[in-house]
Amino acid sequence: MATYKEKWGFPMCAGAIDGTHVPIKVPSQNHTDYVNRKSYYSIIMQALVDSRYLYRDIVVGWSGSVHDARRFPRFSKRTDMKVEDVIHLVAASCIL
User: pTM value?
Assistant: First the structure.
């Protein structure tokens, strides 16, 4: 966490998180669930990186229609950072 403060003046930051839509072919089932806000079919990839630009967590598979606010609190627990260690996460404004 100290590295974020040293590099960017952002104290107590554990990582940066953001997501992207990955275009897919039209699914055979529940296809409307995969239409995102830009009207194309997608699944969502969300990633968390640390101050050394290393991926600490990646989650892929939410359907394209799922809003950022619903996904954000549910990122995977596979990372070695403990919830009590996370003071701040830098995120895109659409997630907040």
Answer: 0.69
